[in-house]
């Protein structure tokens, strides 16, 4: 799978994981193993953690904690394309003056917020015990100057290609805008809302609590290419 034009990413299946190649990335951009580790660690939640055998090797494009201008190649052993997207996202966020932020909205029909934290925890514990999973949704806030026409196409293509649990994507005000007259519309918010269907095979009790960082990475890449 290949995505992007200004900065291009290519995912290839290898014997024990995924090979990620990033083309056209500028040189002399500072990046450390800790940068990648922080975002990769965000996939962990109660009842789920990444494969402990995961291992990431940098083949080219990064030396002495700085990009060289060459193609950046990662070999992600025991990792899939979705998790590899996080590596690209870390780099892309280095080039943005304002990085996107993904926030869970609801888990199994329960609004995600401090007041409902206990209810969500109980629902997740039930899913863990029964080996089941919950549908969920999340929101991504974007910079105010985002070119939404270009962003929509790039983001949707990657999201539906990499995340099979993606059911629907709404941009801006979503369906609520259809109920208003143009004269009553305020400035359109720059945001994305993603709905995720439950998937027992992933062994993730609530997808929005693990995939939020992946969608955040997709958004960062889409912003640079839009």
Could you explain the architecture of this structure?
This protein has 226 residues and is an alpha+beta fold. 30% of the residues lie in helices and 26% in strands. The chain is built from 5 helices and 12 strands. It has helices at residues 33-40, 81-93, 117-130, 148-162, 208-225; strands at 2-3, 8-14, 17-23, 55-60, 62-63, 66-67, 72-77, 101-107, 110-111, 136-141, 166-171, 191-196. The chain has a 5-stranded antiparallel sheet with strand order 1-2-3-7-4, covered by helices on one side. Helix 1 packs across helix 2 and helix 2 crosses helix 5.
Topology readout:
Elements: E1 2-3, E2 8-14, E3 17-23, H1 33-40, E4 55-60, E5 62-63, E6 66-67, E7 72-77, H2 81-93, E8 101-107, E9 110-111, H3 117-130, E10 136-141, H4 148-162, E11 166-171, E12 191-196, H5 208-225
Antiparallel strand pairs: 1-2, 2-3, 3-7, 4-7, 5-6, 8-9, 8-10, 10-12, 11-12
Helix pairs in contact: 1-2, 2-5, 4-5
As a percent range, the share of strand residues is: 25-35%
Number of β-strand runs? 12
How far apart lie the N and C ends?
19 Å
Mean pLDDT: 88
Number of helices: 5
Order of helices and strands: EEEHEEEEHEEHEHEEH
The largest sheet has its strands arranged as 1-2-3-7-4
Strand count, sense and barrel status of the largest sheet are: 5 strands, antiparallel
Calculate Rg over CA atoms: 18 Å
Provide tags for this entry:
5 helices, 30% helix, 226 residues, five-stranded antiparallel sheet
């Amino acid at each position: 799978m290949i995505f992007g034009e200004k900065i291009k990413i290519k995912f290839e299946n290898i014997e024990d994981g995924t090979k990620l190649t990033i083309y056209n990335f500028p040189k002399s951009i500072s990046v450390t193993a800790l940068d990648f580790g922080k975002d990769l660690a965000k996939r962990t939640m109660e009842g789920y953690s990444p494969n402990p055998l995961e291992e990431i090797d940098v083949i080219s494009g990064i030396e002495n904690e700085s990009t060289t201008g060459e193609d950046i190649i990662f070999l992600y052993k025991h990792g899939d394309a979705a998790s590899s997207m996080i590596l690209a996202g870390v780099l892309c966020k280095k080039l943005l003056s304002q990085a996107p932020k993904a926030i869970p909205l609801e888990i199994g029909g329960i609004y995600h917020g401090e007041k409902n934290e206990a209810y969500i925890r109980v629902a997740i514990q039930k899913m863990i015990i029964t080996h089941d999973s919950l549908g969920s949704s999340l929101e991504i806030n974007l910079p105010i100057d985002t070119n939404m026409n270009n962003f929509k196409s790039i983001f949707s293509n990657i999201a539906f290609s990499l995340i099979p649990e993606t059911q629907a994507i709404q941009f801006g005000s979503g369906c609520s805008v259809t109920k208003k007259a143009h004269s009553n519309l305020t400035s359109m918010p720059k945001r994305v809302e993603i709905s995720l269907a439950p998937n027992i095979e992933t062994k993730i009790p609530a997808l929005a609590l693990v995939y939020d960082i992946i969608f955040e990475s997709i958004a960062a890449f889409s912003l640079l290419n839009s």
